[in-house]
Amino acid sequence: MYDRLFAHWALPVVGEPLDLAELFGSDVDVVLDIGYGGGEGLIELAETQPHQSVIGVEVHTPGVAKVLEAVERNGWQHVRVVDGDVLELLPRIPVASLAGVRLYFPDPWLKNKQRHRRLARADVVSSLVDRLRIGGTLHVATDIPEYAAQTLDVCGAEPRLRGGVVPRPSWRPVTRFELRGLAAGREPTDMLYERVS
Ligand SMILES: C[S@@+](CC[C@H](N)C(=O)[O-])C[C@H]1O[C@@H](n2cnc3c(N)ncnc32)[C@H](O)[C@@H]1O
Q1: Residues classed as catalytic
Q2: Which sequence spans correspond to the domains of the chain?
Q3: Angstrom distances, CA of residue 181 to CA of 72, 126, 191
Q4: What is the pLDDT of residues 71-97, one digit of tens each?
Q5: Which residues face 35 on adjacent strands?
Q6: 106 Cα to the center of ligand 1, angstroms
Q7: How far is it, in rounded angstroms, from Cα 141 to Cα 106?
Q8: How far apart are CA 100 and CA 172, in angstroms?
Q9: pTM
Q10: Is 40 touching ligand 1 by the criterion CB < 6 Å?
Q11: Any ligand 1 atom below 6 A from CB of 142
Q12: Which CATH architecture has domain 2-195?
């Protein structure tokens, strides 16, 4: 069952550049959801925002089956998943092609020697912005204040982006990662940027 769903609905992490119009149809907004975790947020947004197509990429696979089952059950043509590292996937995504990038509760890598792994670093943000079309958005949410500060620094220094902290959008699903942080007294910070040039 899993293998059949995976073969039908998943995209290989490496390969030729993706033809997003062929995958989802022309003139469709495509959003990249990086690190969708258990998949509940991706599934909820696929239900509530069906006009947006989504490519979800996740390096660990516990949520993959859940998303694949939802895609099959609902007959969704607007969701595809990638089982792998977003940094390996990015070369497959054409420049200036995405309407949005979601980076919700990225792994914080709190230890000094792990910090270079954070996704909100200048080289990764630059590569993500390359793939946003003008007017496309980068939305980062984190409940780690130091991660929010790094995101504000990095995105503030990226000349093609405009934006900053926004109120928590009511449409962003509450996932168990966010709930775990709230239970520990951590409030999320949402940061929303638009590619302006
Ligand atoms: C803390 S969880 C957040 C999950 C989800 N976004 C949410 O808000 O509930 C971070 C997720 O990012 C994934 N991740 C970390 N680095 C990644 C990478 N380089 N490429 C794809 N996924 C990654 C992790 O496996 C993990 O599931």
Answers
A1: 107
A2: 2-195
A3: 31, 28, 17
A4: 999 999 999 999 999 999 999 999 999
A5: none
A6: 5
A7: 8
A8: 14
A9: 0.97
A10: no
A11: no
A12: 3-Layer(aba) Sandwich (3.40)
Return the pLDDT at 79: 97
pLDDT confidence of residue 64: 85
- For the Cβ of 35 lying below 6 angstroms from any atom of ligand 1, the answer is yes
Q: Phi and psi (nearest 5°) for 63? A: -90, -10
For ligand 1, whether the C-beta of 10 sits within 6 Å is no
- Answer yes or no: are the C-beta atoms of 55 and 82 closer than 8 Å: yes
Residues 6+ apart with CB under 8 A from 189: 141, 142, 143, 145, 148, 165
Q: Is 147 in the pocket of ligand 1 (CB under 6 A)?
A: no
Q: How far is the CA of 119 from the centre of ligand 1 (A)?
A: 10
59 alpha carbon – ligand 1 mean position (Å):
7
Question: Ligand 1 centre from 197 Cα, in Å?
Answer: 28
* 14, 31, 42, 60: residue to mutate for ligand 1 pocket, most atoms within 8 A of CB: 60
Strands 132-142 and 52-58: unpaired
Residue nearest to atom 13 of ligand 1 (CA): 35
CB neighbours of 70 closer than 8 A, spacing ≥ 6?
39, 43, 46, 76, 79
Q: What residues does 52 pair with on adjacent strands?
A: 29
SS3 content of the chain, % helix, strand, coil (to 5): 40, 25, 35
